[in-house]
């Protein structure tokens, strides 16, 4: 009988503990209007460093893309001029006259 009584009191204590925890949780939920905390302070030096770094990276990327585009255009023109020279050579071999440029 004593052992079962002991077990009941353990359960009763656990239940009481759970009720207390629930009560604390309910009490910790804000009642009324929500108070907004001010934003954390901003280190403008760090912010400006990041901004400058981003702008430098963008400028480098833009310069690299511009150079790449220019190289592609030059390569394309080079291929065209090589093709034109080969065409002219073929015409000469066949004895054709090149049409005058308009």
From TrEMBL:
Residues 1-41, 72-102 are annotated as: Disordered. Residues 11-24, 87-96 have a biased composition (Basic and acidic residues). It comes from the Eukaryota. Residues 1-10 have a biased composition (Basic residues). This is Uncharacterized protein. It comes from Colocasia esculenta.
